[in-house]
Design a protein that fits this description.
The complex is a heterodimer of chains A (99) and B (176). With 99 residues, chain A is mainly alpha-helical. Chain A has 3 helices and no strands. The chains are: A mainly alpha (99), B mainly alpha (176).
């Protein structure tokens, strides 16, 4: 196996996630795209950990998983609050702070 | 691309791993593309399950069983269920998401492709055909020893972060 096959897979997934964040308007779908991005990062961390035979890669992949769980909890709470106030979770309508 | 040609002629020991890597990687990429393009939001959540499960399979190929099991438990077990509850609680989102302006989507495609070209070029340039040798799986005992000695501060910080996120989510979503 090559190191690069894992890194290129992670790069492709990262770019798909970036496309999702930029093109989607539904708040929940944006959060799902962020999950894809975080997973790509995890693949990178574990691949480099295996490459260098170092346990730090796995440890930080676990930390990223925990942070992703916290992020989804807060993100969904915000989306829920937005739905309750505006009956819509369209992020392009959330422009109250726009100058 | 010479990377994949080199991966195919990688000697005799990793043939099965390479075949499985190819199958899983293709599944993950198709599922991720469907997840960010499908109109039905529930289907998007189910495609996301496929991406996350594929990542767990890649972790097993890399010899990191503990991360793979945690991935299944936390992502497929908790986060996707959280997403499904979020979809159920916001009924407006059941419909489709498809009145996005065409130019916005075109710009997103341009950004993603440019990013892929830059990152792919840099990766191929710097790690051309570096071999990845996995002679044995990473033992869970090593991981836990490392977490509870060297990275204990980071571990405690993550614990506090999770607690803060829990309380924060309750405070934000509470009705009163």
């Amino acid at each position: 196996m090559l190191l690069n096959q894992f890194l290129l897979l992670a790069a492709v997934l990262f770019c798909i996630g970036v496309y999702g964040v930029l093109a989607r308007r539904n708040g929940i779908l944006v959060l799902m795209s962020i999950e894809i991005i975080l997973n790509a990062v995890n693949i990178n961390l574990v691949a480099f950990g295996a490459f260098r035979d170092n346990v730090a890669g796995e440890v930080f992949a676990l930390f990223v998983i925990a942070v992703a769980a916290a992020e989804v909890g807060i993100g969904l709470a915000i989306v829920l609050l937005m739905y309750r106030n505006r009956r819509s979770i369209d992020f392009s309508e959330a422009d109250l702070l726009k100058g | 691309m010479n990377v994949f040609a080199a991966a195919a002629s990688d000697g005799d020991i990793y043939v099965a791993q390479n075949i499985f890597f190819g199958i899983i990687a293709a599944t993950m990429i198709v599922a991720a593309l469907r997840c960010v393009t499908t109109k039905n939001i529930v289907h998007a959540a189910l495609w996301l399950v496929l991406v996350l499960g594929g990542a767990a399979a890649q972790f097993i190929l890399l010899g990191s069983e503990f991360v793979a099991v945690t991935q299944i438990l936390v992502y497929v077990g908790a986060i996707v269920v959280l997403f499904l509850f979020g979809i159920m609680l916001t009924r407006a989102s059941w419909g489709d998401d498809e009145n996005t302006a065409v130019e916005k989507r075109a710009m997103a495609i341009v950004v993603a492709v440019l990013l892929l070209v830059v990152m792919g070029g840099a990766l191929i340039e710097s790690f051309e055909d570096t071999r990845l040798v996995i002679d044995q799986p990473q033992r869970t005992a090593t991981v836990s020893d490392s977490i509870f000695s060297q990275y204990i501060v980071a571990f405690e910080a993550v614990s506090v972060l999770l607690l803060a996120a829990l309380i924060g989510a309750i405070v934000v979503a509470r009705k009163d």
